[in-house]
Structures are given as structure tokens and as C-alpha cells.
Design brief:
TIM Barrel, 43% helix, 6-stranded mixed β-sheet, single chain, 22% strand, 8-stranded mixed β-barrel, alpha/beta, 22 helices, Beta-Lactamase, Alpha-Beta Plaits
């Protein structure tokens, strides 16, 4: 339908147009301006529009529709709209704009809104195949076929909306399991607590994790571990009521919120059911996986009146369950919080003590049971405090291992012990205990070499004591480090022998220089025939392998006589001496030296 052709412009007219020409505005702004399109009275087809309109409409890659403003009927569409919506041109021209709108009845140009306000909305449209798409609509008023009309540019933003929805979901949910994450759990739990304060009901928080997840990950790989976590999430969902909630807090730790709790027995019943449900076998990638779960429980309002405190207290209860009886559940108790506070205080004070170099090495003598001579000293760390006195190692060493401070303590005590031992007679050795955690960083060999170089102590006079737990994983790195230390000339001793599960097999994996019999076998040795048989076997084994045997915890003459009779090489314990500071050790060594001189004389 051709439109009236404008009359040719004179040179003056063109000059005025050039003078008044302004920069183009953005497409959205241009579409918002009312424009009048005049039509020739003898034409009815859009194909005869002038070139500018055809470029804007027919050839535009953006779907466009022209609607009659009064009847809302679609009177023209471009090729892009036909292709995108799937309707034929004939079908399109039988529809109103409301027919392709999924929910809205009013047209996009309805109401007194600016173009920006209208464009900010997202409209749901229906394609010919029934699928829904999200569109942003830009409208422009015009005159079409001598009637008021609206030109609509339709921008499909379906994928963008999906991406936005996905990002919004991931902000509050775990990407692996689809469960709510910690922030969303906090939000829901705080809302539930606000309701219960008014109604007087109780809410329980159950924090649980898998007891052997790391082993499963290491054995079968992370892909199987991820599938296990998904399976756990499915089992948790199926075990809960609609009003309960479940979330993944991280790694293999999950949380369950039980609403409308009438009595503690209801929470215990749920905990037992969850443990039983999660403890069943899983078939994953052809593997049968069995994993038990431990649960910690906190109940509001008694154990806390906000989400953060409830989760913290439930987590403390979980720690107790895992340490005392994995595969069970534990309710939070007030004393747990007191213990946690004490632990945090020890950690803070221990960091300060390390920075101020307060920790000191004390030394307990190792005695040759045949001649009574001091052959060496075991280094024991001591922490003097001006208020609490001497803090026992049993209080701060576990905290140091949990927090990683054991690396700083180990390096400090090793260096100090080597410096002190360098002042002792040349035939007296110093023994230093190593934590299994000190092997994980990978710099233990360098730390030992630096301590020997700085102090000038010969490597043969240093003895490093390790426990059987270090060899449980039979790590190539651990064995390589031990062999490298021994190649330096350092002696390696197995501490607490007999308390592990595979003590004899460890003797095959590494040639130890010394075995220390755990004090549990030495206690009451004179009257305990079973202990005598065990000690006799260990001593016989050591003699056969050419390994020095040291008995720990010797406290009575009867124990000493029995050890001598069995042929034990060394003894250590309060019967001989408690651990002493360096100044007193020097006095002991001087006294021994004088006694030897007097004996020779």
C-alpha cells in the first residue's frame, strides 16, 4: 500500500533540513515517538511503504508487529516475527495482541506510562507450538491505513531471564545437590523462630555429616563422592515432612530443621531414622558404598534463639558425637559451650605464647638399665603461665594440632633442643617427638637440617620419635622423608609401641633404631602376668632385630627389676626423674660425670 510521495524539495528546503538535523537517538527512544504514516487512498499492502519504513520493518531482524490501537488486532507482521513465533501470516492477521499474551489481557501500550516504564516490564508470549517466551516490548504510535496504530518491537529475553533465575537460585542453593545453602537456611530458620516465639512451639536443628566421606573420596574419586552427596540429599528430602527443611552447609555437612517439636523424644526419633536411612548401602558407578552419619542436635529456645547460635551449638554436639561414638547422635549441653570457650581461650593464649617465645623444652632422662648411666633425654614442651601455672601439654597440644600451630611449636622446640643438647657430653642424645601433622607441609627435612646446622649438633645425637598413626596411610611421602632423615644420620624411634593395630607390620616398612614400649604395658608389670608376656615378646623381638628397646613410665622398683630381668635396654619414668629444664639437666650431667671420675679413681 504505497504512501503519498513527498514533493521534491528546493535547494532552500534542503539547506533548512541539514541545518535542523539532529543526532540519531537510540532505537528505544525513536520507537517511543508518535509518527504519522500517510497512505495513498488506492493501496492496501504494506509492501509499498517507502524505503525507510521497509528497512525499519520488513527487513529488521527484530520481530515486529503493527496493531490497530482501538481493536488491538494485528494488522502487519515482519518476517522475523513469522519465523520467531511460528504462526503463518494469515494466522497472525486473525489474532489480537492479547491472543499471543500468556497472562496479560491489556495491551502493552495501555495506561499512562513512559516508554522506559513499559519497556522495563517482561511479557509472557505464546508461540505457535504452545511454548512460552519472555519478551521486552518497545512501542511506537503511528498512523496505519488511516487508523491509529502501534508498532511493537519484540525482544526475546527468555535465555537472559533463565540465566538470571539460575543465578538467583545459585545464590541461595547448593549447586551440586540443589538444596538450600547456609544463607537461605539462616533466613528460613530465623523466620520460623519468629513464628514459634509467638506460638510457644519448639524448633530443633540437626547438623549431620558422613563419618567416612574423606576415605570414600580418596578411594573411589571425587565423582563418586559427588554422587554420594546427591544420593544423601535425596534420602534426606524423602525422610522429612513438608514443614521441615534441609540444607547443605558444605562438603559432607547437612542441616535439618524440624518444626513444631513437642518433646525431645520426637527429635531423637527423627535422628535415629535419619541415621538408619543414610546408613543404608548406596550403589554408585558399580560400587557398593556404605557410609554412616553422626548428628548433633540443638533445640530452640533452650539452646539458642537465633539461627547462628542454634547451628553453632548443634555443630558442637556433632563434634561430641563424632569423637565419642560415630554413627550416633548427641544433644547439645551447656558444658559443651563452656569447653568450646575454654578451647578458644587456649588457642588465643597459645598464639601469644608462641609469638613471645614463652614455650620451653624440658628434658626427661633415658637411663641405661644395665649400668644406670644417662644415655639421653626426651624433649617435652612446657608452657609456663603467670596466672595458671604450668599448663599441661594434654590441654594445649590437641589445640595446636587442630589449629596448625603444632608446626610452629615443633620447629621451635626442635631448634631449642638441638641448641641445648650441643652443650651436653658427646655420648648423650636428645629425642624430640614429631606430630604426624608436621609431615604434611613437606618441609620437615629442611627444618631438621636447619636445626642441626644452626646448633652444630651431630645428626647421630638427634633422635626423632614418631607414633604408629603416622604410618597408617603408608604414604610414600612419609616413608621417603623418614629415609632421608635416617640418611642424614638421625635416629628414628617408634613411640607407644603396641597400642596400634599393625605394630609388627610397621617394622617391615621402615628400619627403626628404637622401639619404646608404651607405659600401659609397664604399669604394675611386677604383678601383671599378661603385661609381662607382652613386654617379654617385644624385648625379644627388638633383640632379634638389633633394635634398642626403651620402656616408658617406669615408676616402681618392681617394674624396674622386671624390665632388667627381661633384658630391656633403657628405662624412662618418674622412678628416675621427672622432666627438668636445661639448667637442672646440666647439673645432672655434671653430677654423673663426677661420679664416673670417682668410680674410675
Amino acid at each position: 500500500m504505497p504512501i503519498d510521495r513527498p514533493k521534491p524539495k528546493t535547494g532552500a528546503d534542503k539547506a533548512r533540513l541539514v541545518k535542523r538535523r539532529k543526532p540519531r537517538r537510540r532505537a528505544k527512544a525513536a520507537l517511543s515517538r508518535p509518527v504519522r504514516v500517510r497512505r495513498a487512498p488506492d493501496t492496501a499492502a504494506l509492501k509499498h511503504h517507502d524505503t525507510s519504513f521497509r528497512l525499519l520493518f520488513d527487513s529488521n531482524p527484530v520481530p515486529m508487529i503493527v496493531c490497530a490501537q482501538d481493536t488491538e488486532r494485528i494488522v502487519a507482521i515482519n518476517d522475523a516475527a513469522v519465523a520467531h513465533y511460528g504462526y503463518s501470516r494469515d494466522d497472525f492477521e486473525k489474532l489480537r495482541i492479547s491472543d499471543i499474551q500468556a497472562f496479560e489481557q491489556l495491551p502493552p501500550w495501555h495506561g499512562d506510562h513512559s516508554a522506559d516504564e513499559r519497556a522495563a516490564r517482561t511479557w509472557k508470549h505464546v508461540r505457535a507450538d504452545g511454548s512460552l517466551i519472555d519478551v521486552a516490548i518497545y512501542a511506537r504510535l503511528l498512523t496505519f491505513d488511516d487508523r491509529a496504530a502501534v508498532l511493537l518491537a519484540l525482544m526475546d529475553i527468555t535465555e537472559r531471564k533463565r540465566a538470571e533465575a539460575r543465578l538467583a537460585f545459585l545464590a541461595q542453593h547448593d549447586a551440586l545437590t540443589g538444596l538450600p545453602n547456609r544463607p537461605l537456611l539462616h533466613q528460613r530458620l530465623d523466620g520460623l523462630l519468629a513464628q514459634t516465639r509467638r506460638g510457644g512451639d519448639k524448633v530443633a536443628v540437626l547438623v549431620l555429616d558422613l563419618d567416612n566421606f574423606k576415605t570414600i573420596n580418596d578411594t573411589f574419586g571425587h565423582a563418586v563422592g559427588d554422587r554420594l552427596l546427591k544420593a544423601v540429599a535425596r534420602r534426606l528430602r524423602s525422610s522429612l515432612r513438608e514443614e521441615d527443611a534441609v540444607a547443605r552447609l558444605g562438603s559432607d555437612e547437612f542441616a535439618v530443621v524440624q518444626a513444631n517439636v513437642a518433646r525431645p523424644e520426637d527429635v531423637a526419633l527423627l535422628a535415629r531414622r535419619l541415621i538408619e536411612t543414610l546408613g543404608g548401602p548406596y550403589m554408585l558407578d558399580g560400587h557398593t558404598i556404605v557410609s554412616s552419619a553422626s548428628i548433633g542436635i540443638a533445640v530452640a529456645p533452650g539452646d539458642g534463639d537465633d539461627a547462628e547460635k542454634l547451628l553453632k551449638n548443634a555443630d558442637m554436639a556433632l563434634s561430641r558425637a563424632k569423637s565419642e561414638a560415630p554413627g550416633t547422635f548427641s544433644f547439645f549441653e551447656a558444658e559443651m559451650d563452656a569447653q568450646a570457650q575454654a578451647r578458644r581461650r587456649i588457642e588465643t593464649d597459645l598464639r601469644a605464647a608462641i609469638e613471645r617465645d614463652v614455650l620451653q623444652p624440658f628434658y626427661q632422662p633415658l637411663i641405661d638399665l644395665r649400668g644406670g648411666r644417662i644415655t639421653g633425654f626426651e624433649t617435652l614442651v612446657r608452657w609456663p603461665d603467670p596466672v595458671r601455672g604450668m599448663i599441661p601439654p594434654g590441654e594445649f597440644i590437641p589445640v595446636a594440632e587442630e589449629t596448625g600451630l603444632i608446626h610452629a611449636i615443633g620447629s621451635l622446640i626442635l631448634r631449642r633442643a638441638c641448641m641445648d643438647a650441643a652443650q651436653w657430653p658427646d655420648d648423650v642424645r636428645v629425642a624430640v617427638n614429631l606430630s604426624p601433622l608436621q609431615f604434611r607441609i613437606g618441609n620437615l627435612l629442611a627444618v631438621v637440617m636447619d636445626a642441626l646446622k644452626t646448633s652444630g649438633l651431630p645428626a647421630r645425637r638427634l633422635e626423632l620419635e614418631i607414633t604408629e598413626t603416622l604410618l597408617l596411610d603408608r604414604s610414600d611421602h612419609v616413608l621417603a622423608t623418614l629415609h632421608a632423615l635416617r640418611a642424614l644420620g638421625v635416629r628414628i624411634s617408634m613411640d607407644d609401641f603396641g597400642t596400634g593395630y599393625s605394630s609388627l607390620s610397621y617394622l617391615r616398612s621402615f628400619p627403626f633404631d628404637k622401639i619404646k614400649i608404651d607405659q600401659s604395658f609397664v604399669r604394675d608389670l611386677g604383678s601383671n602376668h599378661d603385661a609381662q608376656a607382652i613386654v617379654r615378646s617385644i624385648i625379644s623381638l627388638g633383640v632379634g632385630l638389633g633394635i634398642t628397646i626403651t620402656a616408658e613410665g617406669v615408676e616402681t622398683e618392681a617394674e624396674l627389676n622386671c624390665l632388667r630381668a627381661e633384658g630391656c635396654h633403657e628405662g624412662q619414668g618418674y622412678l628416675f626423674s621427672r622432666a627438668r629444664p636445661q639448667a637442672e639437666i646440666m647439673q645432672l650431667l655434671q653430677a654423673q660425670h663426677k661420679a664416673l671420675i670417682a668410680r674410675v679413681a
